Amino acid sequence: MDNKSSHPSKSKRRENPSPLIFLVVLGAAFFMATLFTAWTPSGLFSGNLSEKMSMMLTAQPEGNPTLSGGDYPQLRIGIISGHWGNDSGAVCLDGNGEVTLTEAEVNLKIATLVQQKLIQSGYQVDLLKEFDPRLDGYNAVALVSIHNDSCVYIDENATGFKLSAAMDTEDLTRAARLTGCLRDRYGGATGLPYHSGSITSDMIDYYVFSEISKTTIAAIIETGFMNLDRDILTQDTDLVAEGIVQGIECFVNNESVKPTPAPTIPPISTISP
Question: Considering the domain boundaries, does residue 35 fall inside one?
Fold first, then answer.
């Protein structure tokens, strides 16, 4: 066989170079895309740009995914069970001085139900102890710490829930929105009044607020008083948990909150820490 006829000549390659160049460019682009997808150091991009690039390089589901709990990607939410793993918190005593109920166990029951409900809605949820080592620099779309108030009878006004937001944050507007959603949804679900008159400095300066990431929007809620509100806290715990879940989902999904006048509750004589 004539070698000249079996191989294209150099002159022919120069006359029609576009197919070969196209294949070379396409191959190089594929290689770079593969390399970039496999190795994308977190320090290459900062803030939201890094997150957006990661989402762009990840296969997306069909349709238009949003950042809601039931869609891709999963959002992380932290739930702190107040006093869990540290102490009992407030306690309820019987006539003989024996402990019949502790705040820690009430908090844990509520927090566990909140976690389960949020997981069922598609969120990634961390159930955290008081003084949990994971709280150092903790990063999530929202963090809520669950507590309750005294079991001692103070007066007839010692009923209802209260809230305080983490003010050491990069976005005070969103912090106010989290507490606004919790107040609206929790109050609506449980029927308990908002007891703003007994918010203590321990709630406002809650130590966790200074330990977590400044990008994490956080709040502490005391879901009721363990004396006058004991029945709903212990017997309708699912309703209490549902109110917190609705408040968190209101915040995450940017739902509307109708302004409602706060119930007028006279200040109570004293509140135990």
Answer: no
Residue 43 has pLDDT above 80, yes or no: no
Q: Which amino acid is at 97?
A: G
Of 201-205, 212-216, 269-273, which gets the smallest average pLDDT?
Answer: 269-273
Say if CB 164 and CB 219 are below 8 A apart: yes
* Cα end-to-end span (Å), the chain: 99
Please report where in the chains the tokens 């103070």 appear, as a residue: 154
What is the distance between the alpha carbons of residues 204 and 259, in angstroms, rounded to a whole number? 23
Tell me if 8 is assigned to some domain: no
Q: Which two tokens stand for residue 231?
A: 């029945």
State residue 58 phi and psi, 5-degree precision: -110, 140
For 112, other C-beta atoms within 10 Å of its C-beta total: 17
Q: Which domain holds residue 120?
A: 76-252
At residue 130, does pLDDT exceed 60? yes
Q: What is the pTM of this model?
A: 0.70
Instruction: Report d(CA 163, CA 130) in Å as an integer.
Output: 18
Q: How far apart are CA 128 and CA 85, in angstroms?
A: 9
CATH number of the domain enclosing 190:
3.40.630.40
Is 49 contained in some domain? Answer: no
**Any idea which residue has 């001692």 for tokens?**
152
User: Does residue 215 lie within any of the structural domains?
Assistant: yes
Say how many domains are in the chain: 1
Of 93, 92, 130, the residue nearest 111 (C-alpha) = 130
Higher pLDDT, 88 or 48: 88
